[in-house]
Specification:
By secondary structure, this protein is mostly beta strands. It contains no helices and 7 strands. A 5-stranded antiparallel β-sheet has the order 1-2-5-6-7, with no helix packed on it. The protein has a two-stranded antiparallel sheet with strand order 3-4.
């Protein structure tokens, strides 16, 4: 993560790999998954922000070759100190 007063950039990556042995025999069912992505947040003004992200996922056990997600959003901060 890299954060400043105006923006924040994040990158992540997760991986899992597992096998099973039953009665000294290896089983073909195993977990093998990878996930990763990045995100960017930008404060446009004191009350408005923009966000974009991109995620990737691979999961051999679920026969998922590649899942790709792209997204963006805009929002407003609410001033909770006012009543």
């Amino acid at each position: 993560m890299r954060a400043t007063t105006k923006d924040k950039t994040t990158v992540y990556f997760n991986q899992i790999y597992a096998t099973a042995t039953v009665d000294q025999k290896s089983r073909s069912n195993r977990a093998k998954a990878s996930r990763g992505g990045w995100g960017y947040n930008r404060n446009v003004s004191p009350r408005m922000f923009l966000n974009t992200f991109n995620d990737y996922e691979y999961d051999e056990f679920q026969s998922l070759d590649l899942r790709f997600v792209l997204g963006a959003r805009a929002g407003l901060f609410r001033d909770l100190s006012r009543k």
